[in-house]
Task: inverse folding
């Protein structure tokens, strides 16, 4: 019964993400395609399609385009969330905040740094400046979403896939895979 409730919860999460996308003016075909992208992004990780679809819906709402742009963001969010040891929803909210304002300010960078991701160092290397200059640039609103996403990708590597290969990750991944099978069976 608990497994069935979990599967139902995952299906509802995917359906809610699709409804959000449709409500924001995306076609049913686009919503279904984005859910497939979300599923591919978390394949082999501890995260579920529902988690990734929710992040994808929020990313679309903030102007991230379906396709390669969304693929990059979903992979980056999954890796950063794994590095930080948090859920995709928590890390995704940081990404979407940066995307919504179009710049990475110090409050967002600090949220990332507080979760153990060396974002200031990654941005300093990427931009060819010191970490102090990164702080000043962020204060002045001079670090865009693109720079933020690229630095997060560099700072997080491929942790989501690597974590999926550990024993605890394999167990979580098995649960995630079972949820995905249940989602497919219950949703037809």
Result:
């Amino acid at each position: 019964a608990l497994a069935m409730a979990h599967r139902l919860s995952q299906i509802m999460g995917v359906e809610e993400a699709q409804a959000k996308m449709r409500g924001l003016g995306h076609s049913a075909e686009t919503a279904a395609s984005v859910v497939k992208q979300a599923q591919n992004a978390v394949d082999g990780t501890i995260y579920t399609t529902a988690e990734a679809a929710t992040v994808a819906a929020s990313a679309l709402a903030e102007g991230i385009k379906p396709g390669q742009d969304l693929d990059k963001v979903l992979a980056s969010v999954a890796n950063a969330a794994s590095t930080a040891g948090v859920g995709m929803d928590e890390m995704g909210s940081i990404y979407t905040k940066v995307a919504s304002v179009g710049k990475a300010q110090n409050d967002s960078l600090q949220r990332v740094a507080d979760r153990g991701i060396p974002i200031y160092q990654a941005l300093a290397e990427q931009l060819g400046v010191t970490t102090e200059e990164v702080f000043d640039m962020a204060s002045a609103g001079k670090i865009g979403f693109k720079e933020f996403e690229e630095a997060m990708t560099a700072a997080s590597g491929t942790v989501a896939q690597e974590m999926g290969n550990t024993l605890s990750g394999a167990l979580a991944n098995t649960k995630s895979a079972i949820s995905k099978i249940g989602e497919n069976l219950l949703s037809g």
About this structure: The chain has a mean pLDDT of 83.
